[in-house]
Amino acid sequence: MANFYHLKDLSSNFEDYLKTIGDLEANKGQVRSKDIAKIMKVKPSSVTNALQVLREQKLITYEPYGSIITTSRGKRIWLIIHQKYKTVKGFLTEILEIDNETADRLACTIEHKISPQVTERILLLKEFLKGDSSTGLNTINRLHDFFEKRTEEIENEIGKEIPMFLLSVLKPGEKATVHKINGDSSIRQKILDMGLSRGQEIVVERVAPMGDPMEITVRGYSLSLRKSEAELIIVR
After folding, report:
1. Alpha helix (H) residue ranges in the chain
2. From CA 226, how far away is CA 191, in angstroms rounded?
3. CB burial class (10 A; 0-12, 13-18, 19+) of residue 43?
4. Rounded Cα gap, residues 58 and 70, in angstroms
5. CB under 8 Å to 150, separation ≥6 — which residues?
6. For residue 37, what are the contacts with CB-CB under 8 A and spacing of at least 6?
7. Residue 100 and residue 89: Cα distance in Å, rounded?
8. Of 8, 10, 46, 218, whose CA is between 20 and 30 Å from 156?
9. Measured between alpha carbons, how far is 113 from 215 in angstroms, rounded to an integer?
10. What is the pLDDT of residue 103?
11. Do 47 and 74 form a contact (C-beta atoms < 8 A)?
12. Structural contact between residues 214 and 208, judged by C-beta atoms closer than 8 angstroms
């Protein structure tokens, strides 16, 4: 079980700075203020002010125009923040089937609010759901089926009777909205990570001969799908 510490005297804003620094340090090894400003989309002067505060709290060491390094205490707190983020995002994507972009945005907000106890309980719940086989059927798949069934029932109750199709049958220029994703949990997660979550609008741009691949636009960016993937996506 992960060991969580309480964070004290660090606002959510400075937690975001420390998380960005720690992530950059873990991925690139070297951190500079311009990298922080680019990722956080803030002015260089804002980064400088934040670095001064983090240095005063002995969470980082740095000199102007030099590299930024987390201290041992800074690394420990970064690990806490990072673990909370991973725990929340994993729960949202793997258990609740929230798309990757939405889950990332929510996790970045929730990580500042949840307590160590809640974080541990989320981890335990994920472990239980993924490991439960008492019924002979994977609990995650049963939960997915429940989500799909109840959502369809609710939509029918409020009169949303719109014809459904496989994404693979649509032609260039046609628009549709994602309604359901078939396939096993790993395939569904892969498609969700592409941004193709329930309710997202899709525009078909091009379809290659024999329908493979299919190019679509979703969330403002282009995406290429194999025919086998498009046949798993139910749209309206």
Report:
1. 12-28, 33-40, 44-56, 72-90, 100-110, 116-131, 139-157, 185-193, 227-230
2. 11
3. exposed
4. 9
5. none
6. 43, 44, 46, 47
7. 8
8. 218
9. 39
10. 87
11. no
12. yes
Residue 141 neighbours by CB distance under 10 Å:
12
Copy the structure tokens of residue 3.
């060991």
Nearest to 92 by CA among 112, 111, 79: 111
Spans of the chain, pLDDT less than 50: 1-6, 136, 159
pLDDT computed for residue 140 by the predictor: 76
One-letter amino acid for residue 45 of the chain: S
Please tell me the distance from the alpha carbon of residue 192 to that of residue 93, in angstroms, as a whole number: 8
Q: What is the pLDDT of residues 126-156, one digit of tens each?
A: 888 877 655 545 777 778 788 778 777 766 6
Spatial CA neighbour of 18 closest among 102, 1, 62: 62
Q: How far is CA 116 from CA 9, 84, 113, 203, 228, in A?
A: 16, 8, 10, 42, 42
Compute φ and ψ for 152, nearest 5 degrees. -65, -40
Structural domains of the chain ordered from first start: 12-128 (1.10.10.10), 165-235 (2.30.30.90)
Which contacts qualify for 43-49: CB closer than 8 Å, 24 or more apart?
47/17
26 conformational bin, left if phi > 0, alpha if psi -120 to 50, beta if neither: alpha
Neighbours of 59 (CB within 10 A): 24
Residue 214 CA, chain-centre distance (Å), reads: 24
Contact present, 92 and 106 (Cβ < 8 Å): yes
